[in-house]
Amino acid sequence: MSSCVSYELSGGIARIGMDDGKANLMTKDMLGELAEAFRRAAADGAVVLLTGRAATFSAGYDMALFDQPLDEIAATLQAGGDLIEQMLTHAFPIVAACNGHAIAQGAFTLLTCDVRVGVTGPAKIGLNEVAIGLTIPHYGVEVARHQLVPTWFDHATLTGTLYDSAAAQVAGFLHEVVEPSHLESVAVARAESLLALDMAAHAGTKQRVRRLVVEAIRATHPHEFVLEPN
Q1: In the chain, fewer beta carbons within 10 Å around the N or the C end?
Q2: Considering the entire predicted model, what is its pTM?
């Protein structure tokens, strides 16, 4: 894989690592490489372990994107939504080892994962779009609605709050929080435990459990970022 995304298959687990050397920004290149990595994991029939770098899972879209031409913005946001749908419908389990910060598109990517392990410390996790002048795309609203604790859904989407790890667990962004030194071993253990699942049953059940959220995304996403001709 490229310098942004790595792929390593071992013992039925595909480790997909995001590392752009900075904040793991969701550029079009990063999104394309992640999509290819998940296609590869599906072909390998592997449980996925998705992780970031240092103290960052992903800080979301590069804000410089929004100074680009409209067609470039639209193409990147389209790719972001496509990745969310791809991960939601991935036929094999996905474990997130959330190294720390997961913001906006980074948090949506986190929320597609079946098991989400985070770390203690000064992490910032949440959906800050309304605080920086952006409207959350429909695909982001739907995945947040599906995964967040209902009483926290409005708070997370409408206030732009970035939570620490403990609050993020309460809100539903994370399932468990461990010391940073334990993240690797715990995430690997969670992935290994999922190897025992009947993968056909997992895929069939995932399709049923996520049917409504996937249908909602498919009803809006193909048209949301299509530019009208002049």
Answers
A1: C
A2: 0.96
